[in-house]
Amino acid sequence: MLNRMTPKPMIPDRAFTACLFDMDGTILSSLAAAERVWSSWAIRHGIDVAEFLPTIHGVRAIETIRRQAIPGMDPEAEAEAITLAEMDDLDGIAAIAGVAAFLGSIGRWAIVTSAPRQLALRRIAAAGLPVPPVLVTANDVANGKPAPDCFLLAANKLGVDARDCLVFEDAPAGIAAAEAAGATVVVVTATHDHAVETSHHSIADYTQLVARAASDGRFTIGLG
Q1: By the 8 A CB rule, do 111 and 136 touch?
Q2: Which of 55, 95, 79 is nearest to 138 (CA)?
Q3: C-alpha separations of 133 from 21, 104, 144, 155 in Å
Q4: pTM
Q5: 124-138: string of b/e by CB count within 10 Å (b at 16+)?
Q6: In terms of Cα–Cα distance, which of 125, 112, 120, 129 is closest to 180?
Q7: 153-211: per-residue pLDDT in tens?
Q8: Catalytic residues
Q9: In Å, how far are 5, 122, 124, 163, 218 from 214, measured between CA atoms?
Q10: How big is the CA angle at 89 (ends 38 and 84), to the nearest 5 degrees?
Q11: Neighbours of 173 (CB within 10 A)
Q12: Positive or negative, the Cα torsion across 49, 60, 150, 105?
């Protein structure tokens, strides 16, 4: 149920019809697991791990692999193998602080992730989080983040306009996708190693976040 107290507004004079959440690094932490799998892959293919790892976040595996332009490689087969490896490595996956309670406080929400559907469901379960009413994954769009397609599709499935949605993201590709969809963005910094330069509102986690019902069925977001 939406909190009807009056929290300090995080985004003044703005109400929303739905929240759209990226998954990895936004509602759950899977950084260690993902980097273990991708580090092994990079080493096998002679790729510098330190330079490579920052490029894997927020985009689909197949696009990460295609960017390497390795002669003779089948990106689809490699992406499938990466997915299987990631599904086997769930060690350390946990929900971002406060997110479960926050998800339970809002009516319309979706997860919009660059992960394949099976991997997304495994990680959501491992983090102890509920399966969302709408789940948009890498399998559902032709163009992944930073294209806006995934957020536009999620909004459409929820029956709302993307411009009336609040998007929670952590990665540059996802932030760009949300911006292109016309949504308002909040940057989640829980898994960031260093300060993020952004013009958007940012939160470390969800522990102080409160949703408050508006008279027209929409809601505002504040810091309690």
Answers
A1: yes
A2: 79
A3: 12, 12, 21, 12
A4: 0.88
A5: bebbebeebebbbbb
A6: 112
A7: 999 999 999 999 999 999 999 999 999 999 999 999 988 776 667 889 999 999 999 99
A8: 22, 24
A9: 11, 35, 29, 17, 5
A10: 70
A11: 20
A12: negative
Q: Residues 6 or more apart from 211 whose CB is under 8 A from it? A: 2, 3, 102, 105, 106, 219, 220, 221
Q: Would you put residue 8 in left (φ > 0), alpha (ψ -120 to 50) or beta?
A: beta
Residue recorded with tokens 């479960």:
100
Question: How buried is residue 37: exposed, middle or buried, by Cβ count under 10 Å (0-12/13-18/19+)?
Answer: buried
Other beta carbons within 10 angstroms of residue 117's beta carbon come to: 15
> Amino acid letter at 176?
A
Cis peptide before 146 (omega within 30 of 0): yes
